[in-house]
Amino acid sequence: MAIKTLQKVMEAKIAQGEKAFVAYIMAGDGGLDSLREQILFLQDSGVTAIELGIPFTDPVADGPVIQEAGLRALEAGANLRNILKTITKFKDEIHTPLVVMSYLNPIIAYGIQDFTKACEQSGVSGLIIPDLPLEESTIITSELQDTDIALIQLVSLTSPQKRIIKIAKAAEGFIYAVTVNGTTGVRQEFTEQLEQYLANLKKVSQVPVLAGFGISNSQQVKEIGAMADGVIVGSAIVQAFHDGNNKQITELLNKQSM
Ligand SMILES: O=P(O)(O)OC[C@@H](O)[C@@H](O)c1c[nH]c2ccccc12
After folding, report:
1. Is 251 annotated in the active site?
2. Nearest-5° angle of CA 96, CA 101, CA 102?
3. ipTM of this complex > 0.85?
4. Partners of 153 in the β-ladder
5. Which atom of ligand 1 is nearest to the CA of 154?
6. What separation in angstroms does the CA of 92 have from each of 95, 121, 123, 130?
7. Is the shortest distance between the CB of 62 and ligand 1 below 6 Å?
8. Are the C-beta atoms of residues 175 and 168 closer than 8 Å to each other?
């Protein structure tokens, strides 16, 4: 299996002695019209990849900030289909890999084959499907095989080592190391186990290991970034865009200095 673009981009960043930074946004929060602007803003800010959240009525892994953003996006009429269609319109302007994060339900409703085709047409480089366990992932990996779209696997603090090794074997793009037990959203403190957890993942994984959940300020970006190959920041960016505080996002990235 050829190495996919998303992974190559991550590896190139890391090879420069830098850390990867993935910024999550809720697609359609602020209306579908603001999607282009938000993506280009993050691209200009120098993020390594952009994670596009698809709004869903039952986002079991999400905390209040992303839940509310999802409701606003749904109210604005955003859905998987029109989000992908919107991106297709300006895909030539996007040079930063896009990762679609969706729960399984909207993908099944779309139809897996049609969804995969639409992702290819809009230039999507990766997928995160948090409620699709590795054991069932063939329903989509069979469609992704001949594409340049990577299915990102998630690992949690409670994953047993045997499972971690299994996931690492199947991993492509990067491994998403969830850093908290619970839902997305800003945290003040992280478990003492974090360093060991991430070190172990890096040891068993052939692909970059990125840490996400709870990371919201430059101090945390730096500290947790140092333990992994990079970080993923969601709620803090979603909130900043909602507040019109783009400067805060720039600061988060500028002080990255990892
Ligand atoms: O918001 P946080 O705590 O910074 O966490 C990242 C996260 O938002 C993003 O990657 C994400 C949003 N919803 C998810 C559901 C599952 C896995 C990951 C996600």
Report:
1. no
2. 150
3. yes
4. 175
5. 17
6. 8, 11, 9, 28
7. yes
8. yes
Angstrom distances, CA of residue 174 to CA of 25, 193, 224, 240: 18, 21, 16, 26
Query: How many domains does the chain contain in total?
Result: 1
Q: What is the pTM of this model?
A: 0.97
Ligand 1 neighbour 55 (Cβ under 6 A): no
Burial class (CB in 10 A: 0-12, 13-18, 19+), 11: middle
Residue 61: what residue type? A
Instruction: Tell me if 228 CB under 6 Å of ligand 1.
Output: no
Task: Give buried/exposed letters for 215-241 (b at 16+ CB in 10 A, else e).
Answer: bbbbebbebbbebbbbbbbbbbbbbbb
Domain that holds residue 215: 5-254
Which residue type sits at 17?
A: G
Residue linked to tokens 């186990």: 193
Average pLDDT by consecutive 10-residue portion of the chain (258 residues)? 93 97 98 97 97 96 97 98 98 98 98 98 98 96 96 97 97 97 93 97 98 96 97 98 94 68
| CATH number for 46 | 3.20.20.70
Q: Tokens standing for 114?
A: 């049609």
> What DSSP character marks residue 25?
E
